[in-house]
Amino acid sequence: MVLQTLSYWMPKILGLQQMGIEIGDATEEWVQWVQGQAPQRLSLALEVTTLLLLVITLIIIWWHHPLYGKNAGPKVYPLVGNFLSFLRNSHQMLDYLTKEIHKSPTHTVRFVRPGLRGQVMYNTANVANVEYILKTRFENYPKGDFQRDVLGDLLGKGIFNADGDLWKLQRKLASHEFTSRSLREFGFECAQRELEDRLVPFLFRACEKPDNVVDLQDLLLRFSFDSICLFGFGVDPNCLELSLPTVQVAVAFDKALECIARRYQTLIPVIMSVKKFFNIGDERELKEAMTVVNGFAEGVIRARRKELYGSQGKKLLARHDLLSRFMEFTESSDHGEVLQSELEQRCMDDLNLNASDPIAKEQASNVFLRDMVISFILAGRDTSSLGLTWFFHALSNNPHVEAKIYDEIKQRLQARQSSQQNDHPPLPRHSFSLEELKQLQYLHAAIHESLRLFPPVPLDPKEAAGDDVLPDGSSLRKGDRIMYNIFAMARMETIWGPDCNEFKPERWLKDGMFVSESLFKFATFQAGPRICLGKELALVQMKLVASSLIYHFKFTAMQMNPPVTLHSLVLRMVDGFHVLVHSRIHDHSIEFQ
């Protein structure tokens, strides 16, 4: 009787029928078999029944667990988490994440790393969530321990890897400098000089060669590295010389980024720790690369300190680059208790030096400066160069947009010709001035549209400092990580409309004038307290290069299909962006002259 009762009620109590598990018939046959056996087998039957109930109970627990079973999103399994899903889609991670976000009604999905207590990670393309994370509850979503550990060898405690008072100190310093007109003008001059003296002449020479194919991505990365090093350090690494030399520090910088990207791809964090402890594999490569990068940066800092202050510590001259400006701040007597405390802490903890020793303090100050400047070089190089690479890729697939930009440039040059007849100062030979660039509204819109679809940094991770609930109802616990997915946001009809996948600069224009969107909707440059300080400088540099190259050259992409993106910190084309380059035949009455 007991066994018959179990056979009827257990499937209903446990909800197995709702799960598609029909065991009623099988259980009834099993009961009949047990009743027909000798009494001595009854004990064994009860043991089997107990085991069966235990297995069923575990299945139910798994099915109703907040992380597993029936929950929306990719299936999460005990111990392995989402390891199998990540492994299957490692070659197309951004597309995979975008598809999963599309499936979710809230545009937020949850993933779990492997382990007994695998870390929970959320990926969101919900505008309300982005504003909540970046502004409303900014203090609850710092970079976090995981991010600092992964990026620590590259960025140290620089502004892009710092939280709390240290971040506020660096932000205040950097904000003061980036609002300086003289710094903005110096940054523009660095880019303009590199464009006029190297990039444009290099491409003209390429046009004359029988094999006039160039890797535009490589050229733009070289261009940006030269100009950002001039801007950041006041040093020219000469990456864009005609011979395209192998510059050791640039190669080391790329290798470091590649190794850091592998850290993010490591689904089991302990593997990174083991490789780092034994100094093997990509951890060894990272260490070697950072020895070159840090050696370059620290050498420049020591030389600049001597150049600016001499052996007596008295200021001898002024320079405009970012390093010199930061150096003046750290040498001043009113830099505040936070910086002083930070330098002393670095002496004791990071460098094992006596904090009261002036030489030790200088060394700590050098490391502080190194971390800050390397952070800005990383941000400045990739935002502009990769943003431009994807911009020209978009133009290759949308020639009508390129034609409109070309017409706008010609109109601007005709206006320039009139101004020169009125005895205005001479203008640049191969590019526009800062004031002229402000008039190129359609180009400005096209660059924003490219940055929307192809953000140089497609994902930005944060870590919950305390338990919280997002506007869409997602519940986060302390230590959970959340990434807002800029790449996926651009492909959401609920955000950008049914034409969200189209390259359409007109969405940014009203009556021919550029109209900006909410920074929480267009989060390429972040938003809230951490909004990118170099945003305007980056946009001006992109317009400077784009306007000059579009007017002087016609690029034809070699790839017929969209290029595959490298799963890395940044959105880079795996095999570069190879193009045929041709010099345009101009109406000489409206040339840059």
TrEMBL record:
One matching Pfam family: p450
Gene Ontology molecular function: heme binding; iron ion binding; monooxygenase activity; oxidoreductase activity, acting on paired donors, with incorporation or reduction of molecular oxygen
Cofactor(s) needed for function: heme
Keyword Nucleotide-binding: no
Keyword hit for Methyltransferase: no
UniProt: heme binding residues: C532
Signal peptide from the UniProt entry: none
Annotated transmembrane regions: 44-63
Keywords: Heme, Iron, Membrane, Metal-binding, Oxidoreductase, Transmembrane, Transmembrane helix
Family to which this protein belongs: Belongs to the cytochrome P450 family.
Full protein name: Cytochrome P450
Organism for this UniProt entry: Ceratodon purpureus (Fire moss)
